[in-house]
Design brief:
By secondary structure, this protein is mainly alpha-helical. The protein folds into two domains: about 70 residues, no CATH class; about 45 residues, no CATH class. It has six helices and two strands. The structure holds zinc ion.
Length: about 140
Amino acid sequence: MTAYEIYDQIMKDAKDPETGEYVDDKLIEAYYYSDAVEGCIAYIQRIFGCDSAMAREVFAIYKEKQGPSLLTPAQAAANNAAAEAARSAQQNKPKCPTCGSTNIKSISALNCGVSVAVLGIFSKKINKSFECRNCGYTW
Ligand SMILES: [Zn+2]
């Protein structure tokens, strides 16, 4: 087998015959943790019965082909932080400017359309996006 053929098998979801784990998952680990690379080389040797030089070549191909599509640990952390910020922004619900209640509902585009049709163009709900369930204020 050539290094490319082994790489191809890894990408076709080759599994560790002992544990049933995907070889690909193990390689992703080694991509993130440089001290895991040697273990990974030995792993490829064990799974595919090749020598160390061949296993290194396989890993080099993996890194070259898969590396750009994988996030570095720093990028993954930045993504997590962004997701976390989005989550907490959502928890920071808007408050009623009059009574301070967070028991508000957003007036959907559909509701706005209904209020235009039913109440006419002078509806005070037009261009408002929230309504307080506590005091009924809209803004
Ligand atoms: Zn209110």
